[in-house]
Design brief:
Elements: E1 2-7, H1 28-35, E2 38-41, H2 51-58, E3 66-70, H3 73-76, H4 84-93, H5 95-99, E4 103-109, H6 118-130, E5 136-139, H7 148-157, E6 160-165, E7 183-188, H8 211-215, H9 218-227, E8 230-235, H10 242-266, H11 271-284, H12 289-297, H13 326-334, H14 338-341, H15 346-354
Parallel strand pairs: 1-2, 1-8, 2-3, 3-4, 4-5, 5-6, 6-7, 7-8
Length: 369
């Protein structure tokens, strides 16, 4: 299952851009919960929250909503300090989320200065041991940690690897996604090269992804989904609600593929109809993935009926002819040639690549007795 959300929700500059002007700040989480099905809580990095805070947060969102929670800064950015008490306080604060069935996992994000050294590896092992009773995901900001032995270490402890999209400076993490636990995790930090090192905590993440940039991640996210129980995709480019915009874009891209795959497997439309339907889904998907799947389920109609016709004739009034099978239409899509394929939406191209049409079946003419 793929869940998409943002890294935080309580930002003043989201009012009027994501939150309507008439929605009060105390109602922002309620509003957010109607739009997305998960949230990464980042405020816990700056201060330890009281369990009552999470209790009230859990009561403001739907039953199937999940929270992931970022660790307090002393646990990741002050390695070697006397932070034993902070571990206990942080874990205790999560209890209301667990009791409500709305706890996803813990995110431990280490800074770029956290190098792959023997001392830091020991600290990482100790941190994993302290969170051994909770789902844990680790994000590294230094590419020294991109090693097979690190992946093996995480798999042995069932600790998730956090894939990141961020500027590709020499020291930062490349966009590598891999499954090391039942939890997949992807964070989008933006690609603001100009202000990554010189800007403040807000301007560093001032970046709006294009749909083409987000689309680069679709195959990786799909693969993670196949290898894990749940995949969290969070947008951390929170400046002026750009995260919410890109989260909606990502949902739309995923929903487009859901609909296209559905059509390819379950309908008898022609290639033109499939292409048109994919474009319609892309243009109109403004809700969640679940809503898009609901829309896609309405696509199925008997083969031969016109898509979008105002007056549909019932099947008994249609001419009885040898209607093409779904396999015929899928084969037509697959065998259009490179020139034809270039005109298809990217989602269809990927679906065809992963689900190629079956080989033609030759049938010998029946002999008369």
């Amino acid at each position: 299952m793929i869940r998409v959300g943002t890294s935080g929700f309580k930002f003043d500059d989201w009012k009027g851009t994501f939150y309507p002007e008439d929605v009060k700040p105390k109602e922002w989480l309620n509003y957010y919960g109607k739009r997305f099905d998960c949230l990464e809580v980042n405020s816990t990095y700056y201060r330890l929250l009281h369990p009552a805070t999470f209790f009230h947060m859990a009561n403001k969102v739907p039953e199937d909503f999940l929270f992931t929670v970022k660790t307090y800064r002393s646990l990741t950015h002050e390695a070697g300090s006397d932070n034993e008490a902070d571990f206990g306080t942080f874990i205790e604060s999560l209890q209301p989320l667990s009791e409500a069935g709305k706890f996803g996992c813990v995110l431990a994000q280490f800074p770029t200065s956290f190098h792959n050294t023997p001392g830091n590896r020991d600290y990482l092992a100790g941190l994993c041991d302290r969170f051994s009773e909770l789902p844990l995901v680790v994000e590294f900001r230094n590419r020294q940690w991109v090693k097979d032995e690190v992946f093996d270490f995480l798999r042995d402890r069932e600790v998730g690897w956090c894939a990141v999209d961020e500027p590709q400076f020499r020291s930062l993490m490349p966009p590598i996604s891999t499954a090391t636990s039942p939890v997949g995790y992807v964070r989008f930090h933006g690609r603001n090269y100009e202000k990554w090192w010189s800007g403040d905590s807000k301007s560093r993440y001032d970046y709006l992804y294009s749909r083409e940039e987000l689309e680069e991640w679709i195959p990786k996210i799909r693969k993670l989904d196949e290898q894990t129980d749940v995949v969290y995709v969070f947008m951390n480019n929170c400046f002026q609600a750009q995260a919410a915009k890109n989260a909606a874009d990502m949902e739309s891209l995923l929903a487009e593929e859901d609909a296209v795959r559905f059509c390819l497997r379950a309908t008898g439309y022609s290639s033109a109809h499939l292409t048109a339907r994919a474009s319609i889904v892309t243009a109109t998907t403004a809700g969640s993935i679940r809503q898009a799947r609901t829309r896609a389920s309405t696509v199925v109609r008997p083969s031969g009926m016109q898509l979008g016709s105002a007056s549909q004739k019932s099947p008994r009034h249609r001419k009885k002819s040898a209607a093409p099978t779904p396999d015929d239409h899928i084969r037509a899509l697959s065998h259009r040639g490179d020139r034809g394929k270039r005109s298809l939406p990217p989602a269809i191209l990927r679906a065809l690549k992963e689900d190629p049409a079956p080989a033609p079946v030759s049938r010998a003419p029946a002999r008369r007795p």
